[in-house]
Specification:
This protein has 342 residues and is α/β, with parallel strands linked by helices. A hairpin with a 6-residue loop joins strand 1 and strand 2.
Length: 342
């Protein structure tokens, strides 16, 4: 299967640059896999699509303000750092740009000197390992002061309120990008969902910047999938297993939850408490082992995420749905609208 099989034409003006004023006012395309019927609704209509006894699985990761701009100590040149992975001992894997300014041994300061780092290693992929020092009890406090949200490259507008790139239920710091399907939820919507008898449970998958990495291999089977760390708690496993036993549906909110659940189900043949990293690559031909429905945003052409959605439904039908969304002037990508497939 070729990556060009997942291409669609998207006018640039449909890429959402800012979040809507009200989270749950986003539009929602609803697809019934059995009837192949498409409906156009709003996210606040999701209550009517859920049944008592279903469970929603949400990713409670929280995005780090991980984009920081450093000044090179010897020349004063500016270099952008994007913090990816906390390696412990205040050492982080980072993406730097321009990289030629971040040679081993180079030192940088950030935010009037409250944060500094020294590049200690250059990795094969060009990323750097940097050791940080700071004023404060932990680096996360300092990042709150000097860091910016690591918005995807296709968003060029300034984000006025950084909490709009967090879900209302975000809790566990560690992501380089938001689990965007969850951005539509409000506390009121979540209360209405639980009032209907739908269980809500959580996994944690820290979204890596690799989620935006383009597929370069023409044959998608040759793509080297990025790895991300996840935690599936016992409470969540119990809720999912009870839901299945009682005939309810397991609904994954976002591709991150889908990848977490399918990783565990593929490994053990069941859902159980587990913590690991996953590089699962889901594309057409994959047999789903856990989820029954999927809430997800609209994804980039030829991305691994549109391939996952195509595996859950049908490649041709998904592309038809995307073309319909373009025609209907839906808003695309991180701050855009969503689709519910069941």
């Amino acid at each position: 299967m070729k990556k060009s099989d997942f291409y669609y034409d998207l006018p640039k003006e449909l890429i959402a640059q800012t979040p809507l004023k009200q989270r749950d006012n986003s539009r929602m395309m609803v697809i019934n896999r059995k009837t192949q019927e498409i409906e156009h609704k709003h996210f606040y209509d999701i209550i009517e699509l859920l049944n008592k006894g279903d469970c929603l699985v949400l990713n409670n990761t929280r995005v780090l303000p991980a984009r920081i701009y450093g000044t090179k100590k010897d020349t004063g040149a500016t270099v952008e750092f994007l913090l990816l992975n906390n390696l412990g001992n205040d050492e982080w894997e980072t993406i730097t740009g321009p990289g030629k300014r971040a040679k081993v041994g180079t030192e940088f300061t950030f935010g009037d000197g409250i944060l500094s780092c020294k590049v200690i290693k250059v990795l094969e992929n060009g990323n750097r390992i940097a050791k940080f020092s700071y004023d404060g009890s932990n680096i996360y406090e300092v990042l709150d002061k000097v860091g910016e949200m690591p918005l995807p490259h296709y968003i060029t507008e300034k984000l006025e309120d950084r909490e709009r790139y967090q879900t209302v239920y975000s809790k566990e710091l560690g992501s380089a990008a938001a689990p965007t399907a969850g951005l539509h939820f409000t506390e009121e919507i979540m209360k209405r969902i639980t009032d209907k008898g739908v269980k809500i449970c959580y996994v944690t998958l820290h979204v890596g910047i690799g989620t935006f990495r383009p597929v370069k291999a023409e044959n998608i089977e040759d793509h080297n999938m990025h790895s991300e760390h996840y935690v599936l708690p016992k409470e969540t496993a119990d809720i999912i297993n009870d839901t299945k036993k009682n005939g309810g549906r397991v609904i994954a909110v976002g591709t991150t939850c889908c990848r977490t659940l399918e990783s565990v189900a593929s490994k053990f043949g069941e859902i159980r408490e587990y913590e690991d990293s996953t590089n699962i690559f889901i594309y057409p031909g994959y047999e789903f082992k856990c989820i029954d429905a999927l809430l997800t945003n609209f994804h980039l052409p030829e991305s691994t995420l549109i391939m996952l959605v195509s595996a859950f439904y049908n490649r041709e039908k998904v592309l038809e749905a995307y073309n319909s969304a373009v025609k209907e002037r839906y808003r695309f990508f991180s701050f855009g609208d969503c689709m519910f497939i069941y």
